[in-house]
Amino acid sequence: MTARIAVFSDVHGNVVALEAVRKAIKKEKPDAILVAGDHALNGPDPAATIDALRAMEADGAVVVQGNTDIAVADFDYAAAFPWMADGVPDAMQIAAEWAHDALDDAQLDWLRRLPSERRIRLEETLVLVTHASPGSQTAGFDRDLDAGVTLERLSRTDARIICCGHTHLPEIRDFGWKQIVNDGSAGYVFDGDPTASWALVTLDGETVTAEVRRTEFDALAVANAISARGLPGDVYRAATVRTGKLVR
Length: 248
Hints:
The chain has helices spanning 15-28, 46-58, 67-74, 77-80, 90-102, 105-113, 147-154, 219-229, 234-243; strands spanning 2-8, 32-36, 62-64, 117-122, 125-130, 161-164, 171-174, 179-182, 196-204, 207-215. It is globular and about 50 Å long. The chain is of the alpha/beta class. α3 packs antiparallel against α6. The protein has a single domain (2-218), classed as 4-Layer Sandwich (Purple Acid Phosphatase, chain A, domain 2), CATH 3.60.21.10.
């Protein structure tokens, strides 16, 4: 029996991209939908994004919390960005405060209660969904990560499939005994393709295959909405959405 899983993450308040991805996923009729965190920060419409994700969760999607969700919900910047030893830039804090203020109490409580990771079992295969890596919302599977560190992070779970995001760079890595499915970003991608990226995983007995999918959305309209907001750093955020490359 075959089972399929749709995975996406890092919507970052881009509800236009999220709705496009939802439509694309619906056509595939997956057995499970996993959402790997970073829901609200940077984009122009965090409230509508959270509402859409809550609706998906009510329909059975498994949703976990990302590091920027901690920043938006509770302003715990040291927890959200531990690699910024010299402090989080003012522009990032202002964006987190803006997103926080755009959400009502129920939406903020939902962000706070999300788990850091979840596990599901399909076709006798254990699947982990986490934002960055097993046991961490901030230590991801970067492409230039030392091989030994990658293997150490892989060994933190018994799951055969690790579904994650955080890097904003879509990538499938098959180690034989385990597979990393990094869907990239469904709203704020960094690989130079200004579309929303997500992943589709197929389980067929002991065989696991995964592929990255790309879904078009109106990137220019979203970029313009970010620019119109006028927060410090929005010119760079808008350029990132428009080009699909991290601009800062």
